[in-house]
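job 3f2a | input accepted
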Amino acid sequence: MFADYEILQPFPQLGRGVHALTEEEKAADHLERFEGLTVPTGVVLGLERLGWARATPDHHNVQDTIARALPDGLLATIHLHPGIEAGDPRARPEQTLRLVSLAEAPGTGPTRTGHTFAKLDDLTASELLGHLTHLTRSAP
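job 3f2a | predicted structure (140 res):
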């Protein structure tokens, strides 16, 4: 019906993309395909509209992690470099994704937790991959 009346969706719903983990990614404890990519800090901040939250600032007032709560008490965690200055988020215009992993609680530094992505159901994995794909769309 939307197509018949040439109405554009205000947000992805009917035509929402479906994303899937590869078998290798399901068995892994981090998502290599997104790591090492550099993205604008503003795009990282945009994840907050999707339920992501920046970490508490460290002693240098830098937030080097952004995370999103997932089912079963897990967090999807992205470790950033050089990190976002809490007092001036636009001071560092770009962020490099250092490690994309799952954790039980926010940690310090990019450390692997051993949680594999096989723990995620298909819907949760698709939503997470959708967010990461949107985030990295502007990466060179």
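job 3f2a | The beta strands are 38-40, 52-54, 62-69, 75-85, 94-103.
job 3f2a | closed
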